[in-house]
Amino acid sequence: MTTRFKLCSFTTCPWVQRAAIVLRAKGIEYEIEYIEREKDKRPDWFRAISPHLKVPVLIIDGKDSLFESNAIAEYLDEVAAPRLHPADPIARARNRAWTDYLPEFASAVSRCAYSNTKAELEERAREIPEVFETLEGALEKRGNDGPFFNGPDFSLVDAGYAPFLQRYAFTDRLYPLGIIEKYPLLKAWSDALLAHPAVRKSTIAAIEQDWRDNLVRHDRWLSTLLDGAPAAAAE
Length: 235
Known about the structure:
Elements: E1 5-9, H1 14-25, E2 31-34, H2 44-47, E3 57-60, E4 64-67, H3 69-79, H4 89-100, H5 102-113, H6 118-125, H7 128-141, H8 156-174, H9 184-195, H10 197-200, H11 207-217
Parallel strand pairs: 1-2
Antiparallel strand pairs: 1-3, 3-4
Helix pairs in contact: 1-3, 1-8, 4-8, 5-6, 5-8
C-alpha cells in the first residue's frame, strides 16, 4: 500500500520548500494544503498537529503528523529511496552538522531581505559575507568538483540551503548586493541548486512574485523597488 503524504504550508515558506524538495528529489507524490500566514487565522485542525503553530507539517496516511523541516527531511530519507544522506557514517555526520548551520545562514539572508529601511538593509547585508565565507570554506574542503555539496549526488544539505539561496537571488534581483560573486564555489553551488528540477518544482509557479507580494504586505523597504523590476517568469 502506498503511503500518502500531505504537506501543510503557506505559499512562500522556505522551510516547507525544504521538505517539498526532498519529496521531489525522491519522486514521491504528495498533496499540499496552504493555510493562512497569520497564526491567529490558522485552523483548529492545524493547531492540533503543530505544537508551535508553524509550518511545515507532514501528515502521513491522514493520521500521523511530523513537524520541523529537518525532522521531516530525515524521516523521508529513512523511508524512501534514493537515500540523500551519504552512506559513509563520517560523511553523514558532517552533512548533519552543516544542516545544523542552516538556521544561522537562513537568518542572515532573511533578515537582509525583510529590512525596514535602506540603511537597515545595508547594515544587515554586512552580516552575509560571514555565512557565505563559512559555506565557501566547507565547499573548498569537500574534496570534489560538485556541482552539489557532496559532489554529483543531490543531498539533504542541498535541499536545506536551496530555498535560502533562492531568496538571496530574489533579493539580489531587486537590490544588487554584489556579495555572492566574491565566493565562486558558493555561486556555482547556488546556480546548480536553483537549476535542479526538484528545486524548480518545489514551489508555486509564481514564487518570486508571491515573495514580492509578501514584502508589500509587511511594508518592507525592498517593496519600494518593485516598480520596473520584473520577477523571473513563472514556470
